[in-house]
Every structure is written in structure tokens, then in C-alpha cells.
Design brief:
There is one protein chain. This protein is 57% helix and 1% strand. With 357 residues, it is mainly α. The chain has one domain (18-334). A two-stranded antiparallel ribbon has the order 1-2. The radius of gyration is 22 Å and the shape is globular.
């Protein structure tokens, strides 16, 4: 029996594909990732490979259980990108099981339980990060200072295996991220004006010479990758500019009004996962609004929520929580900021035919 499905014109064709878009995003992330792997040494390399490999493995298992073919979904780059972004949001010396559990949370729970690629409501990598942070707060906030690959004091191959697979210890090498340091100092009653000079400076924050996850370092390289995506028209400026701009404005205004309580706007922009979140996470096609006006509202919301969580909540970093909260509001934003349908007026009425004009 042949089933014929009639579809009305017009039809559009574009020289893009899921695999092409994912490959371009991975290429944009590659320089920052390579720098970060060099910056944190072999434990970061092992965790990165485990996390990406686990996401591909969980993707294959989910496809098999659903009775769907492996190709092309397994190799379109979506699962690899989820693992890549998740790895960059983890402490670089976290144990191996953090990467494996993150893959299960992100790919199985946040993606395939909703129906697979294009059906998920929430960003899979951020679901995995938040689930891990809530479940294992100690492991997810145990950072180390940079230990350059092959540099003095950096663990060798065998010692790094011990760190990743649980026979090593990080207690003597743990350090707070820049945001965590300020939050801890405020909790001790030390004002920002006194603690900020002891935190990493703006140049150190920008270059990445500070404790934190891999996505919190190499601001310049992440920014370059984001601008590359904009130049290739993979993403537009609306979400990144509004996320970064809102964070900067909120931080600057409140720092000017209450300098002892609030950190400067530039500190917020250069700290945490601001750049990675603005260019590579918040711009996810599936979980962000369609219209440009909706993207502006979405970006402002992420920037505002990130500042609020960083400033008033218990966690130093708020990007992942902000993205997920705005993911939940994306359908409502799309409802209020619908793009004009082809052949229709802005009010949804059919355009008059040429002969009727």
C-alpha cells in the first residue's frame, strides 16, 4: 500500500544539515578546548574523553532500545556536542563516574525521554550539570589550580589515571573558583572591596589562569569561537549580546551603588561560564525561541537570572539554572513573539492575491 502525503508549496532548501551545524560548533569549540586540556593536564584529558565517549555510548543504547537505526543519528554530532559541553562544565579533575552519570542524565533523561533530537524541552548538557551539582555538590565544586600539561607539578600519565579513577586525592590541591572565592569571603563578612584584590585579576580571568571548570577559562578563545559561529550565521547576535549585556549592566549598576556588596559587571562577564553559556549553550536551536524579539527576551532573562543566582543564591554559578529556567519559558515566549508566517500578514491574515490588489 502506498501512502501519499500532500504538502503545499512553497518549499525551501538550504545547504545545511544537523551534522554540518554540529561540526561547525565543535570546530568553534576546539581551540578553547585544546587550550583547557593543556591548562589542566592529563586528568582533564581523561575526563573529557570519558564524558564524550559516554554520551555517544548512551546515545547508541537509547537508539537500540527504541528500535531506531544508529546512522545517521549517532554520528550527526549532537551527542558528541552534548558530551563536549558537559565536559567543559565539569571540574577538570572530577572522577570518571561523574562523566558517565552526566551522560546518562543528559542524553537518556533530558533528550531521549522526550523523544530524541529536536524534541527535548531542556538543554541536555545543562540538565546533566544541574543534576550532578545537586546530587554531588562536593565533587562538582572541587576545583584545582591550572597544572599545564607536561609542566612542573602537573601529574604524569599514571598519576592522572589514579586521580580520574579514584586512587588519587585532590584535598591538598583543591581551590575555589573566582565566583566561589568572592561568595565565601562575603559569607565570612569580608566586603567585596577587600576580597576582590585577592581574587584573580581581569587579565587572569580572561586568559584562564584560574581554578574552575574548563568552560570558565580561555574567555578570549571562547569569544573567538562564538564570533566564528556568528560569522558563519550558525547563531545570531541577539542571545549572546543580551546575556552578556544584562550581566554587565546589572553588575555595574549595583557595584556603583553598593561596592562593598556587589562585584563589578566586568567581573561577572569574565567569570564563570558567561561566555560559554552565552555563545554555545543558550543559543541551542531546540530550546531557545524562534523569533528575534523572543531571543532578546530570552537572553535578558538568562542574564538577569544568572546575576540573581550568583548574587543571592547558595551556588556561586547560576548559568545552568538560568538556562533551564528560560528553557521552560521558551514555549510561552514563542507564543507571544510569533514570527510572521510566509504568505500572511503580521496579524495572521492571508496576503491579498496580486489580482485582488
Amino acid at each position: 500500500m502506498t501512502i501519499v502525503v500532500d504538502k503545499s508549496a512553497p518549499f525551501t532548501h538550504a545547504p545545511v544539515s544537523v551534522q554540518g551545524i554540529m561540526t561547525t560548533v565543535l570546530l568553534a569549540l576546539a581551540p578553547a578546548t585544546l587550550f583547557d586540556l593543556w591548562l589542566f593536564g592529563w586528568p582533564a584529558v581523561f575526563l573529557f574523553l570519558i564524558t564524550v565517549g559516554s554520551c555517544l555510548g548512551v546515545e547508541a543504547i537509547c537508539l537500540r532500545l527504541a528500535g531506531r537505526p544508529m546512522a545517521p543519528t549517532l554520528f550527526d554530532g549532537s551527542a558528541a556536542l552534548t558530551g563536549w559541553l558537559l565536559a567543559m562544565s565539569l571540574p577538570p579533575w572530577a572522577p570518571w563516574w561523574i562523566g558517565v552519570l552526566g551522560a546518562i542524565f543528559g542524553v537518556a533523561l533530558a533528550k531521549h525521554s522526550f523523544g530524541g533530537l529536536g524534541q527535548n524541552v531542556f538543554n541536555p548538557a545543562m540538565v546533566a550539570r544541574v543534576a550532578l551539582l545537586v546530587s554531588f555538590p562536593v565533587h562538582m565544586t572541587l576545583f584545582v589550580a591550572p597544572h599545564a600539561l607536561f609542566g612542573a607539578g602537573s601529574p604524569g600519565f599514571g598519576e592522572a589515571l589514579g586521580i580520574t579513577f579514584g586512587t588519587g586525592t585532590l584535598d591538598s590541591m583543591s581551590a575555589a573558583s573566582a565566583l566561589g572565592f568572592i561568595k565565601n569571603e562575603l559569607a565570612r563578612g569580608i566586603p567585596v572591596t577587600e576580597s576582590l584584590p585577592n581574587a584573580p585579576g581581569f587579565m587572569a580571568l580572561a586568559w584562564g589562569a584560574k581554578p574552575g571548570s574548563m568552560g570558565e577559562t580561555s574567555v578570549y578563545l571562547i569569544l573567538a569561537g562564538g564570533l566564528f559561529l556568528m560569522a558563519k550565521r550558525i547563531i545570531s547576535w541577539h542571545i549572546p549580546v543580551t546575556v552578556i549585556g544584562t550581566l554587565f549592566v546589572m553588575g555595574t549598576v549595583f557595584n556603583l551603588l553598593f561596592p562593598e556588596r556587589f562585584t563589578p559587571g566586568l567581573f561577572h562577564v569574565l567569570s564563570g561560564a558567561t561566555m560559554l553559556g552565552a555563545f554555545f549553550i543558550a543559543t541551542d536551536y531546540v530550546t531557545s525561541p524562534v523569533s528575534k524579539q523572543g531571543q532578546l527576551v530570552y537572553g535578558i532573562g538568562i542574564g538577569l537570572l544568572t546575576w540573581i543566582i550568583r548574587t543571592f543564591a547558595g551556588y556561586p554559578e547560576g548559568m545552568a539554572f538560568a538556562v533551564l529556567l528560560m528553557n521552560a519559558l521558551t514555549p510561552i515566549i514563542d507564543q507571544h513573539f510569533r514570527p510572521r508566517a510566509f504568505g500572511r500578514t503580521s496579524k495572521g491574515q492571508p496576503l491579498p492575491l496580486r489580482g485582488d490588489q
